[in-house]
Please model this.
Amino acid sequence: KWLKDSGEAPVVLDTSKTRRSLQRLSSYYYDRGYFNNSTNYSVDTTGRKQRATVAYKITLGKPFLVDSISNEISSKAIDSLYFINAGQSLIKKGQQFDRDIFNAERERLTAIFRNNGIRNFQESSITFDIARDTVVSEDDQKMNIVLNIGDLKKRGENVVTTEPYKVEKINNIDIFTNYLSATGKDSIKTIEYEDYTIHYSGKFQIKPKTLANAVFFKKGNTYRDLDKIRTARQLNSLNIFKYPSIIPEVDSSGTNVNYKIYLAPKTKYSLGTNFDISRSNIRRLGIGLNASLLIRNIFKGAENLSISADGTFGLLSSPSFQEDFFSEVGADITLDFPRIWFPFVTTSTLIPNYTLPQTRIAIGTSFQRNIGLDKQTLNSVLSYNWTPSEFKKHSIELLNVQYVRNVNSNRFFNVYQNTYNILNDIATENVSVVNPLYFNDQGNLTTPIEATDPENIGTDGFIDDVLSGEIPVGGNGLTREEFNEVSSIDEREQRLTENNLIFTTNYTLNKNNRNGVTDNNFYQFRFRLESAGNLLSSLSSIIPFNEKDDQLLVFNVPFSQYIKTEFDYVKYWDLSRSNVLAARTFFGIAIPYGNSNNIPFVRSYFGGGSNDNRAWFPYSLGPGRTSAVNDFNEANLKLALNLEYRFPIAGDINGAIFADAGNIWNVFDDVEDPDATFNGVDSLKDIALGTGFGLRYDFTYFLFRLDLGFKTYNPAEVQSKRWFRTYNFSNSVLQIGINYPF
Model:
């Protein structure tokens, strides 16, 4: 079966198929303007026993060119519309003949007519007559094109009749909100609202204005296909109706069209549940539960309320901090409006209804009790998004508030083992000048959760003594490098254990030109701009906030203040036969100012991982040319470049060869280590390069991915040993992912 799926089975030579192939080749080049092409083939059976080679030969000749363009149009309505838009014709004088261009011109004209009142225009009414003047010279390759647009054809029982096309205008618009549940004619009631007649049975469940905003047909307007498409799209986006049925009915005059829109409501309440069981090297057993309730049309304006709660509970693989149980619970409430909601402001002129405007108000909280610092979070969002077309989307989070509280910050050195080991090594190497009470029976520094005497905590006491000068630097004391390392650890502990209050406003633009999931020749672009803390900073001139260490406090937590921007560009090239070349470039920077001198950990950048530089594990790359000594290395500037060649192997199994470049750096913050900071063009030599290969299995609905990355250029090594230092399987990194990395 693998052989059958991965190759082509041998076939018996059949010259009838060979001739058909020859005809197809000739037709292909004929459609590209080579009308006088000639083709033949030859069969060679002398190479191998019972094997044949077929060679095709095509002589193209000279291509034919468009010399003149004229037209013959039957309907007056079509004639006037054509000449208004003739300047945008895809067929140009002097152009080489190409059937695809003629087909595209036919589609262009059809769209113009159907969006200017010719609702029933038939694409088959457009034909082209191509004439060549043979009197002047047999070698003359110029053609005269005649565009013919005929009348409307109507097929009866035994005869086909024609009549001129007419511009149609919208007359009556009837909307049936629950036609499936109507029990009889007497049970149907009617409401007149603006240009619409709304029919319903039972209790009326939706505001007339909501329906009017979702329907783009207006009484007296010229018919447009675009209005029909937008109406169906908007009614679907409300998420309270099943797919609408929009039916036109032409009156006896033939120039007015009545529309009937049939809607079937979805159920008001929808309940969803999820259950999963997991196991890992950290969790011996994990059980996850999730429940969500969706209440549609809660205020009769197509507002949808979603309430969800989830929890994960289980046992750890080994007792940690005298505990072997973990739990994570959370809840979210989300309210969606099918419009841009802003008090006292009308936004429909700036953001029309056909762009699918939506407002979302959400609040959520979560509580973690696990092997980390045990976080409590509170999130709230007021956001807007609208989609002018299927290729462009705008999103604004007017207010995004995130509060993070570390419940057990005293666990820091037990959680971040690499950091503890570095500090412990420095302390034990200088044991002669260190308070012996800082060590346990094994000769290691005690951590806050291990110390029996709160006045003699080894990790904190040693750091305090080093930074205060109680432990000298130089001579018999610490080296300058060791002092800097302790200072860096102290800063890191403060950053990762501090509580965060983040008030942000951000804008995101997404653009692409992809035509469906099978299109592998497209681009995607994302731009994001985020600002944090400015609202609270402005309020500080009115409200007297508390202050600590030159930082303003809200609820006894210093709020973050920064500006952040990101650019993300992805390009795909279709190389034929399911071979695809994909490239990605990413640049992001976050600059702290005002009330902050660094970026919160949850808003910073990291390097490595299955969707980044795959030769490094997450958080293990950088910053800069540092050797990733911490458990979670992060910074506030990131540059990433990715290139991947994807190809089929067998059946649903695909392969890839990739190269990932990039790094993270600190810039404009309180980190002063020159190895970790970005210092202009010279720092670009610290860009890491990882290469490798991968396998993917396509499950149709998602893709399972295995990538093996090799450190090709490692900036953490000394200058002379950065290339291919650990380029071998024993030092490779296996990444597991779902779907493509970009």
User: Anything to note?
Assistant: The two ends are 32 Å apart (CA to CA). Residues 480-497 form the longest helix (18 residues). The chain has eleven helices and 31 strands. Residues 91 and 102 are 7 Å apart (CA to CA).
